[in-house]
Amino acid sequence: xxxxxxxxxxxxxWLYALSMIPFxxxxxxxxxxxxxxxxxxxxxxxxxxxxxxxxxxxxxVGCPYRGRYCPALCGVYLGNALSGVLYxxxxxxxxFFQRNAVAGETMVVILIVFPIYWVFRTNWYLVPLYxxxxxxxxxxxxxxxxxxxxxxxxCPGGKAWLRCxxx
Length: 167
Fold this sequence. Notes:
Blueprint: H1 10-37, H2 39-60, H3 79-86, H4 94-113, H5 116-122, H6 126-146, H7 156-166
Protein backbone atom coordinates (compact mmCIF):
# COMPACT_ATOMS: atom_id res chain seq x y z
CA UNK A 1 0.00 0.00 0.00
CA UNK A 2 1.28 3.47 -0.83
CA UNK A 3 1.91 5.82 2.08
CA UNK A 4 1.11 9.22 0.49
CA UNK A 5 -2.46 9.82 -0.61
CA UNK A 6 -2.85 12.08 -3.62
CA UNK A 7 -5.46 14.78 -3.08
CA UNK A 8 -7.59 14.96 -6.23
CA UNK A 9 -8.05 18.47 -7.60
CA UNK A 10 -11.02 20.04 -9.32
CA UNK A 11 -9.07 19.78 -12.59
CA UNK A 12 -8.54 16.02 -12.04
CA UNK A 13 -12.26 15.57 -11.58
CA TRP A 14 -13.04 17.50 -14.77
CA LEU A 15 -10.57 15.35 -16.69
CA TYR A 16 -12.23 12.29 -15.18
CA ALA A 17 -15.63 13.54 -16.37
CA LEU A 18 -14.20 14.09 -19.86
CA SER A 19 -12.86 10.52 -19.93
CA MET A 20 -16.34 9.24 -19.05
CA ILE A 21 -17.91 10.59 -22.26
CA PRO A 22 -16.66 7.75 -24.52
CA PHE A 23 -17.58 5.21 -21.83
CA UNK A 24 -21.12 6.50 -21.44
CA UNK A 25 -21.64 6.60 -25.20
CA UNK A 26 -20.43 3.03 -25.65
CA UNK A 27 -22.15 1.67 -22.50
CA UNK A 28 -25.58 3.18 -23.17
CA UNK A 29 -25.27 2.55 -26.92
CA UNK A 30 -24.35 -1.08 -26.29
CA UNK A 31 -27.31 -1.59 -23.98
CA UNK A 32 -29.66 -0.13 -26.60
CA UNK A 33 -28.07 -2.16 -29.39
CA UNK A 34 -28.20 -5.40 -27.38
CA UNK A 35 -31.82 -4.74 -26.40
CA UNK A 36 -32.67 -4.47 -30.11
CA UNK A 37 -31.48 -8.08 -30.50
CA UNK A 38 -33.23 -9.20 -27.32
CA UNK A 39 -33.82 -7.56 -23.96
CA UNK A 40 -32.18 -10.55 -22.25
CA UNK A 41 -28.85 -9.60 -23.90
CA UNK A 42 -29.01 -6.11 -22.39
CA UNK A 43 -29.86 -7.66 -19.01
CA UNK A 44 -26.87 -10.02 -19.28
CA UNK A 45 -24.62 -7.08 -20.17
CA UNK A 46 -25.79 -5.05 -17.16
CA UNK A 47 -25.42 -8.15 -14.94
CA UNK A 48 -21.81 -8.57 -16.12
CA UNK A 49 -21.20 -4.92 -15.26
CA UNK A 50 -22.67 -5.40 -11.78
CA UNK A 51 -20.59 -8.54 -11.17
CA UNK A 52 -17.49 -6.58 -12.13
CA UNK A 53 -18.46 -4.01 -9.50
CA UNK A 54 -18.48 -6.71 -6.82
CA UNK A 55 -14.92 -7.73 -7.68
CA UNK A 56 -13.86 -4.08 -7.74
CA UNK A 57 -15.35 -3.69 -4.26
CA UNK A 58 -13.00 -6.43 -3.06
CA UNK A 59 -10.05 -4.49 -4.47
CA UNK A 60 -11.15 -1.32 -2.67
CA VAL A 61 -10.63 -2.87 0.77
CA GLY A 62 -7.71 -0.98 2.28
CA CYS A 63 -7.60 1.68 -0.43
CA PRO A 64 -6.84 5.19 0.83
CA TYR A 65 -9.70 6.55 -1.33
CA ARG A 66 -12.40 4.23 -0.02
CA GLY A 67 -15.50 6.28 0.70
CA ARG A 68 -14.17 9.39 -1.09
CA TYR A 69 -13.64 10.44 -4.69
CA CYS A 70 -11.98 7.54 -6.42
CA PRO A 71 -11.36 6.97 -10.12
CA ALA A 72 -11.49 3.19 -9.47
CA LEU A 73 -11.36 0.57 -12.19
CA CYS A 74 -11.17 2.90 -15.17
CA GLY A 75 -13.61 5.19 -13.47
CA VAL A 76 -16.78 3.36 -14.35
CA TYR A 77 -17.30 1.03 -11.46
CA LEU A 78 -19.03 1.53 -8.16
CA GLY A 79 -16.58 -0.54 -6.11
CA ASN A 80 -15.62 2.34 -3.86
CA ALA A 81 -19.16 2.74 -2.50
CA LEU A 82 -19.98 -0.95 -2.68
CA SER A 83 -16.85 -1.92 -0.75
CA GLY A 84 -18.08 -0.23 2.42
CA VAL A 85 -21.39 -2.10 2.15
CA LEU A 86 -19.97 -5.56 1.35
CA TYR A 87 -16.78 -5.40 3.44
CA UNK A 88 -17.30 -2.82 6.20
CA UNK A 89 -14.81 -4.33 8.68
CA UNK A 90 -12.42 -6.15 6.39
CA UNK A 91 -8.79 -5.01 6.30
CA UNK A 92 -6.42 -5.19 3.34
CA UNK A 93 -5.26 -8.73 2.55
CA UNK A 94 -2.93 -9.21 -0.43
CA UNK A 95 -4.40 -12.59 -1.46
CA PHE A 96 -7.98 -11.29 -1.27
CA PHE A 97 -6.95 -8.25 -3.29
CA GLN A 98 -5.19 -10.35 -5.94
CA ARG A 99 -8.14 -12.73 -6.35
CA ASN A 100 -10.52 -9.81 -6.79
CA ALA A 101 -8.12 -7.96 -9.11
CA VAL A 102 -7.75 -10.95 -11.43
CA ALA A 103 -11.50 -11.59 -11.40
CA GLY A 104 -12.17 -7.88 -12.03
CA GLU A 105 -9.70 -7.73 -14.93
CA THR A 106 -11.25 -10.87 -16.41
CA MET A 107 -14.73 -9.39 -16.09
CA VAL A 108 -13.65 -6.18 -17.83
CA VAL A 109 -12.40 -8.23 -20.78
CA ILE A 110 -15.64 -10.25 -20.82
CA LEU A 111 -17.67 -7.04 -20.62
CA ILE A 112 -15.81 -5.61 -23.62
CA VAL A 113 -15.88 -8.79 -25.71
CA PHE A 114 -19.44 -9.97 -24.92
CA PRO A 115 -21.35 -7.54 -27.19
CA ILE A 116 -18.99 -7.65 -30.19
CA TYR A 117 -20.91 -10.41 -32.02
CA TRP A 118 -24.18 -8.44 -31.81
CA VAL A 119 -22.48 -5.17 -32.66
CA PHE A 120 -21.11 -6.90 -35.78
CA ARG A 121 -24.53 -8.38 -36.61
CA THR A 122 -26.05 -4.90 -36.44
CA ASN A 123 -23.48 -3.50 -38.85
CA TRP A 124 -19.82 -4.37 -39.28
CA TYR A 125 -18.66 -0.73 -39.25
CA LEU A 126 -19.94 -0.35 -35.68
CA VAL A 127 -17.24 -2.76 -34.41
CA PRO A 128 -14.33 -0.37 -35.12
CA LEU A 129 -16.39 2.50 -33.67
CA TYR A 130 -17.15 0.42 -30.56
CA UNK A 131 -13.48 -0.50 -30.10
CA UNK A 132 -12.36 3.09 -30.77
CA UNK A 133 -14.69 4.38 -28.04
CA UNK A 134 -13.46 1.74 -25.57
CA UNK A 135 -9.82 2.55 -26.36
CA UNK A 136 -10.53 6.29 -26.18
CA UNK A 137 -11.97 5.88 -22.72
CA UNK A 138 -9.00 3.83 -21.50
CA UNK A 139 -6.47 6.24 -23.03
CA UNK A 140 -8.16 9.35 -21.65
CA UNK A 141 -8.77 7.84 -18.24
CA UNK A 142 -5.38 6.26 -17.71
CA UNK A 143 -3.44 9.27 -18.94
CA UNK A 144 -5.28 11.71 -16.66
CA UNK A 145 -5.93 9.62 -13.54
CA UNK A 146 -3.59 6.62 -13.14
CA UNK A 147 -0.37 8.59 -12.98
CA UNK A 148 -1.59 10.58 -9.97
CA UNK A 149 -3.39 7.85 -8.05
CA UNK A 150 -1.79 6.80 -4.76
CA UNK A 151 -2.84 3.23 -5.46
CA UNK A 152 -1.11 2.96 -8.86
CA UNK A 153 1.66 0.59 -7.77
CA UNK A 154 -0.92 -1.81 -6.33
CA CYS A 155 -3.79 -1.49 -8.81
CA PRO A 156 -3.46 -3.60 -11.98
CA GLY A 157 -4.58 -0.66 -14.15
CA GLY A 158 -2.09 1.65 -12.47
CA LYS A 159 0.71 -0.88 -12.98
CA ALA A 160 -0.24 -1.17 -16.66
CA TRP A 161 -0.21 2.62 -17.01
CA LEU A 162 3.19 2.92 -15.32
CA ARG A 163 4.63 0.26 -17.68
CA CYS A 164 3.14 1.99 -20.75
CA UNK A 165 4.37 5.40 -19.59
CA UNK A 166 7.86 4.01 -19.07
CA UNK A 167 8.13 2.97 -22.74
